[in-house]
Description:
The structure is a single chain. The protein is an alpha+beta fold. Strands 1, 2, 3, 4, 5, 6, 7 and 8 form an 8-stranded mixed beta sheet that branches. The two termini are 43 Å apart.
Amino acid sequence: MGRTARHHTFFEMLGNFSFGDYFKAEAIPWAWEFLTVDLGLPKDKLWVSVYTDDDEAFEIWNKEVGVPAERIVRLGKETNFWEIGPGPCGPCSEIYIDLGPERGCGQVTCGVGCDCDRYLEIWNLVFTQFDRDLEGNYTPLPKKNIDTGMGLERIASVLQGVPSNFDTDLLLPIIRTTENIAGVGYGEQAKTDVALKVIADHSRAVVYLIGDGVLPSNEGRGYVLRRLLRRAVRFGRLLGIKEPFLSRVAETVIQIGQSGYPDLAEKEGYIKQAIQREEERFLSTLDTGLSILTNWVKGLKEQGETTLSGVQAFRLYDTYGFPLDLTREILREEGIHVDEAGFQAEMEAQRERARAARQEADGMGVLNGSSRLAGVVTEFIGYTRLVEQGRILALRVNGEWEEEAEEGAEVDVVLDRTPFYAEAGGQVGDQGLLEGRDGRVQVQNTERLASGAIVHHGVVVSGIIRVNETVTARVDGERRWATARHHTATHLIHQALRRVLGEHVHQSGSLVAPERLRFDFSHFAPLTEEQLREVEKIVNNMILEDISLEIFVTERAKAEAMGAMALFGEKYGDEVRVVKIGEFSLELCGGTHVERTGQIGLCRILGEASVGAGLRRIEAVAGLSALKRWQEETSIVQQAASLLGGTADELPERISSLQAQLKEKDKELSRLNRTLLELKAKELLQRTQIVNGVTVLAAEVTAGSMEDLRFMVDSLKPKLPSAVVVLGSRLAGKVSLLSYVTKDLVAKGLSASDIVRAAAQVAGGGGGGRPEMAQAGGKEPAKLPAALQRAVEVIKEKTS
């Protein structure tokens, strides 16, 4: 991407669809009408392609729409038949616009379907009219469908009359942002342009992926995101950018996209933070990796070799975070190939090692401990009892299988039966004690293995425990009941959300702990304060009704027929456990719960936020945790009221009054600051100099912001009708520069952008802007005097 005018990793698709309603006779004329009437495209510049055998489409285009036969091209299955294996499929018809021979490849064969930029495909009409079976037979569909697609970026480039998608208002502002950061110019060098385009394209993809809940990783969608982000970083390095910069580019992406995708603005902080973290992580190893790769390339060239080994490519990936396609791209610039088969072999070997490690960490899995747990299934009896006798079947001490464990040892204990609930369904595992004849284990967590064995992770706090010994398993009852209150509260919150927001709400994940709960659910927008309060009210009304819970086991089919909700990410067998709360809630659930809703006591929603596209999260507390939270907040309110000299009821009024006073103070400070800046600007007039007949003011000033520098320049404008002004200041350990050139001098060839960019480079930075006004920054404040001197030299060079 970035090397052609029209291809992207992220683009927006426009279109219209019909499922069994209208078909070719309507879709084709409508498409033509939209392009030629609504968008005003010239008819004589439009060409059409149809599938080789689609005479029906040809006739409609030619006879009904009036497209000349010589501008209708028949193309084959590779381009004009849509199918992705067995299932619905059909021919398609594409609409192209001729952008002129100057955009073409110059070949005699150049025409519709050529890979050059002359004939730009702007719309594809897919006629889904067949059903393909496994044998490759095509059967006409009883109800035919229309599926069309038009790339927004492509049609924007045509309507805006620009040479490429990257020059449209969808992408050019992003390029301008990177220009300013890098201190380079778009359209000046081909190599620079490619880098700017890649960054613009990839930054859009990165922002929208993260906005939709994808995070960088080494698997699936997350790896696609990582590859795009790191490729953009590498192209930034080619432009001379050595610091994290993509979060700044992301701001422009979000500004452009937020009108159509308002959730981008809501998630801006999260998106930028995710980008910054990944960029910093990659930059920490990029230089070392590039150095190693450079040395390898040098060695290969000296030996007359043209292929980098898969082992070396994998080392770059595994140790320095280089995605394979990034390594491939860097090598291509040097005329070197990469052994991709060898790379994939190394990748598979690592996956195998990871699988083996997971099995061992699953403790007692396939490796050295498997024989000890063959056929072991722990009986869980903790729904009704918190204390029970159990026999130790297996004991792992500090990672090794042993027959006994002494005080201080970290142990994994497997019993034949236990009241300890193993972590599952979002509910944390139980804690408590295992008490034997000669020793005790403090259980810190409980997990269930795939085999069915329940493992108690803990520490021997006294004495000694042994295999085959019978112990008393004692669950921390207070902690269990606190967890149960939060688990039942999640069920109430789930149903309350469905009542307030709609039936589209479904649980997408949860954390149920003794001190709090977290509930993730599907919804397309933030909840209003009124909606949150209504949800909270419904939940607490259910608590006050003190409804008795019915918990029973039944066949899954029967439970689903009753309307029981199955939850996201859970696997169910033929028999399921159902939790019923009166007529209010019915869910499949294996967790622990209170007996009556009144035992929850109170539920308080602490907040609600987005955790991805179409995914929201509520955090809440129940029972004693809710009481503790209420007490803490009450104490804070009382302290605030005391500090402001009033009662809790008077707080809003007093805070509002204080804010009004502060606002007035801020206004007064601003007025005083502007008066001071005007005085400083007046003093600067004495420091002007004449350079080749041009009045020049290049000076260091004390300013609190770039806005202050602009105000000073504005103050100077009436007093300097023909001049060049360059002001610099040291702000927060960095350099800020602002350049201004009067219009008469711009007409003579002086540019504020050129002047400030040259000055900023001396101070280790970059920038740019318009010929009349431009700004820049630098990272070396000590070099500000030299930077200002450089500005004067540039003016002298330009006017000599």
